[in-house]
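Troubleshooting log. The previous structure file for this entry was overwritten by mistake, so regenerating from the original sequence record. Sequence copied from the archived sheet and checked twice against the printout by T.R.
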Amino acid sequence: MADKPTITMSDRLTASLPYVLPVLGAAIGMFWARYGTEHSNPVIWVAAGAVIGRLAAMVLVRMLHRNTFDRPGGK
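Regenerated output below.
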């Protein structure tokens, strides 16, 4: 058990954000198409939500890669 590598929280977030945020964005888009607008195409809102989620994931992953607080030696 002592040889088991430890995975930092930033590495876990970096691995999961590109999958979680587009799905969350699409879910918000579905909610918005259902309750926020009248007579709109839900495909556009779901796709827009997924694209916005993907862009947010890219920004957050880049910000996490710049964070050097939990890496040994600051690199």
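The chain has a mean pLDDT of 84. Archived copy saved in two places this time.
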